[in-house]
Every structure is written in C-alpha cells, then in structure tokens.
From TrEMBL:
Domain of life: Bacteria
Localization of this protein: Cell membrane
PROSITE patterns found in the cross-reference section: ABC_TM1
Listed name of the protein: ABC transporter permease
Membrane-related topology note: Multi-pass membrane protein
TM region positions: 7-28, 103-124, 136-159, 201-220, 259-285, 305-328
Family: Belongs to the binding-protein-dependent transport system permease family.
Ranges of residues in domain ABC transmembrane type-1: 97-324
Keyword list, A-Z: Cell membrane, Membrane, Transmembrane, Transmembrane helix, Transport
Amino acid sequence: MSRIYGVAGFLAVIATTYIGLLAVTFFIGRVVPVDPVLAVLGDRAQASAIERVREQMGLNLPLWHQFFIYVRQVLSGDFGTSVLTTNPVMADIAHVFPATLELATFGTLIGTVLGVPLGILAAVKRGSFTDQLVRLVGLAGYSIPIFWLALLGLLLFYARLHWVAFPGRIDIVYEYTFTPITGLFLLDAVLQRRWDVAWDVFRHLVLPASLLGYFSLAYISRMTRSFMLNELGQEYVIAARAKGLSETRIIWRHALRNAAVPLVTVIALSYAGLLEGSVLTETVFSWPGLGLYITNSLQNADMNAVLGGTLIIGAVFIALNILSDLLYRILDPRTRAR
C-alpha cells in the first residue's frame, strides 16, 4: 500500500510540475509587451479587423478561460501557428529540435568522457599541481563567455587552420541531395552509408559540440572530484587499503561505483542544460536548432513560437530530471528501501 501511495505521490508531483510550467509560459505570453493580434495583422490594421481577430484568438475572454483553452490546446499538441514561418509551431519544433538534440548529445558525450576521468584524477591527486590544473580548467569553463570562445574557435580552426567547416549544419552541396531519416544528420548519413556526407556533417558538428562539451566538462569534472573525495574518505576505503587491495581497484571498482549514483543526476542535468542553453552557440554557428529558432522568433515578435519552444525545453528539462531521479532510485538500493 505504501508503494502505491509513493507512486501516486510521484505522479502528482509530475502533474503539478507540468501544470506549473504551463502556467508560467501562459502568463509570460500575457505580460510581454507584444500584442499577438498586431503581430499577425500589422500595426496598420483597422480597428474592426483587430477586434475580430482578438475574438477569434479568444483574447477577449476572462484570463482563467484563456488559460483553460491554452492548456487544452497544448495537451492536444496545438501550439498555434508561427507568424514567421506560417507553419504550425509544433511542426517547426519537430523540424529543428533534432539539430539541438544532436549538438547537445555530442557535447554531453565529450563532457562526460573527459570530465569524469579528470575529476577522478583531481580527487586522487588532491592538492597537487594536477588537481590545481583540473580545477583551473573547470573554472575557466564557468567564467569564459561561450560566444567569445565560439568566435575565437571560428577564427582559429576555420579561418586560419581550415580544420572545420563553415558555420551551419551541412554543406550546400549536400543540402538538396541528402534525405534525412531521423533528423540526426550524422546518424542518417551513417545509416545510408553516405560517408562523404557523414564527414561533412562531422566537420560542421565538431567545433560547436566541443565548445558545449567543454562547458559540460567543467561542471562534470568538478562534481566528480567532489563525489570522489567524499567516497575516498569513507571507512570502507580505509578498510580496503588495510586489506591490501590495489589503489586502482579501490578507485575504479569501489569508490567510483558509489560516486556514480549521484553522478548520473549531474550528467542528466548537464545534458538538460545543453539542450536549453545552446542558444548563443547555435546563433554564432548558424546552427538551425531550437535555440536559433526561438531567437529568430523573439526578434520577430512571434510569441506562439517563443512560448512553444520554451514549453518544449521546460518539458524536456523536467523529463530528464524525472529520469535521473528514477535512475538514482534504481542504482541506489537505499532509496528503494525508504
């Protein structure tokens, strides 16, 4: 019975969180100094046309009624029509989101593959030059603006060394001869055995993904160091050393295994952060993802697109938090016993 109550409470928290997200996005759309009717008709529209469209959009109704209609439309997948593209917002998001997903996924992989070993190394070598160097790299990742690093990377690796491709996602040579399947261009090129396209996509992807990976690395390495320091100070580590176990076995088989439980949450939050925080990177690199879509929509007062994109990002962030919490419960038996 207690387990049923626990599941019910968990589902109630999820439902409340999503309702709160819907409420926040709805009221943001109502307090911004942009009239959605004028965004559709223009500033020179006649008063009668403005009033008619306002009634069609339901903006003459009480606020609670507008919120009810908004929730009903969102739950049915209707985010309205984009003023900028004249397409349904959901169709636009489905088109651009795979680009952001591909970029954030590679960034998270880079940050995890490099950040976890660096964090472990810094914890094992605590107080040494290596530890200070890893912490300095992480501090730089938090401090240096990503748009400055992006411009510097383009100047060095594209303009000077010619190691990476021009900003964008794919060369114009392949844009009309390559047919995506999943929207993840690198995966699609491999599935179709278009190795020339795969190489071109990789040359476009590697620099922005590496920059996002560096910022992910800064967060993951710092948290890994903190978790490992906590585990290396535990009594079971002292007992393992007293039994004569090798330091390598203690670090990788025992300490890291326990540190991996909270580390899953850190990696999931880092992934969510890259999904929602790659706006500047996508803008600098002309990466046609969700961040660039929201930026262009905001500049053109296309509030349906802005709110739809914001809602999707918030929903993904909440979903990843829920997933990390479930993985935490699976990996840590103590949470299942509560």
